[in-house]
Amino acid sequence: HPTKRKAVYQLYGITHHSGSLYSGHYISEVYNFKNRRWYNCNDSRVSPVGGPDTSSSTAYLLFYVMRD
């Protein structure tokens, strides 16, 4: 859409996959907009992290939000 040409997007989540096509494990890094911190979500554990691992080759899904 023409009004969205200069849109800015912010990364707020990454899902990583390790393993094979038929099995494996997923972990996620998510951003909390309220406290402005990143968290690593791995099964039942959630731990604060300094930021997302954007150089990882295991990134499977990236989640963005359009900023105002």
Overview in brief:
The protein is mainly β and 68 residues long. It is built from no helices and five strands.
Mean pLDDT score, rounded? 91
Strand tally: 5
Based on CA atoms alone, the radius of gyration comes out at 14 Å
The fraction of residues assigned to DSSP E strands is: over 45%
Unreliable stretches (pLDDT < 50, length at least 5) are none
- State the strand order across the main sheet: 4-3-2-1-5
Distance between the termini: 15 Å
**H/I helix tally:** 0
From the spread of the alpha carbons, the general shape counts as flat
Order of helical and strand elements: EEEEE
Largest β-sheet summary: 5 strands, antiparallel
Structural category: mainly beta
Helix percentage: under 10%
Provide structural commentary.
This protein starts with 7 loop residues before the first strand and ends with a strand. It has no helices and 5 strands. A 5-stranded antiparallel beta sheet has the order 4-3-2-1-5, with no helix packed on it. A hairpin with a 4-residue loop joins β2 and β3. It has 68 residues and is mostly beta strands. 6% of the residues are buried. It is flat, with a radius of gyration of 14 Å. The model has no long low-confidence stretch (mean pLDDT 91).
